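Amino Acid Chain and Its Fold in Token Form
===========================================
Scope: a single protein chain, as residues and as a discrete description of its fold.
Amino acid sequence: labelled as such and written in the usual single-letter residue code.
Position: the record begins directly beneath this header, with no further notes in between.
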Amino acid sequence: MIRVERAPEPADFDSKVRQPGLRAIAEMVGSPGLPKRRGRPREVIAASPDEIPADKFPPIWTEVLPELLEAYGRVCAYMSFYIERVTGAASVDHMLPKSVDWHEIYEWRNYRLACSLMNSRKNDYQDVLDPFEIDNGWFRMELVGYQVIPTPDLPSDIQKKVQATIDRLKLNDYECLKLREEYAEEFHRGDISQARLRRRAPFLAREIEASRPATAPRTEQEELQK
């Protein structure tokens, strides 16, 4: 995992997500005096927003999934791999779970672009570090087996949080390791350029670049790909 810089809120986010979301919540708690809207009114299911079950909030956040994909280069915030078109399953993850604070359900600042696998593993757990708040040196990668590990010299409390994130997301399961290995082998064979590796697997690219001596001359293949 590497640090992700939060993208600016889209200009139409308020009209596409926030206002429709807040309106949905108001309907589900039976707020009086709501202006009429097109479509069938939502059923009143709770006395207050805090009592609305997490799975009952309308998934209006999916309206901005295209904007999330564009803003973050289609890279999963947790796995740090490109989410393929058609075959990849992209999703909007709520960093603060829907079951915890309804105020953040329809807020851009609470959204992280995630592949569906990482989203399902994170679920409502709150022991996963926020990609917006970590430092780039907290997670490292062993370039022999491609295991993700905490940086050894981290303070013990941060090291425990990093390891908890790795464990929760299962970042070292077989499929994750094989994907890193495949990208690395393609890069070392010269099948993909360094620039493409950075776009497709930025964490892996960073670790490979960090492992190379700063004064190492470029290979002929690297010069051709420059």
Q: What stands out?
A: DSSP finds eight helices and four strands in the chain. Residues 28 and 43 are 6 Å apart (CA to CA). The first helix runs from residue 13 to 28. The longest strand covers residues 90-94.
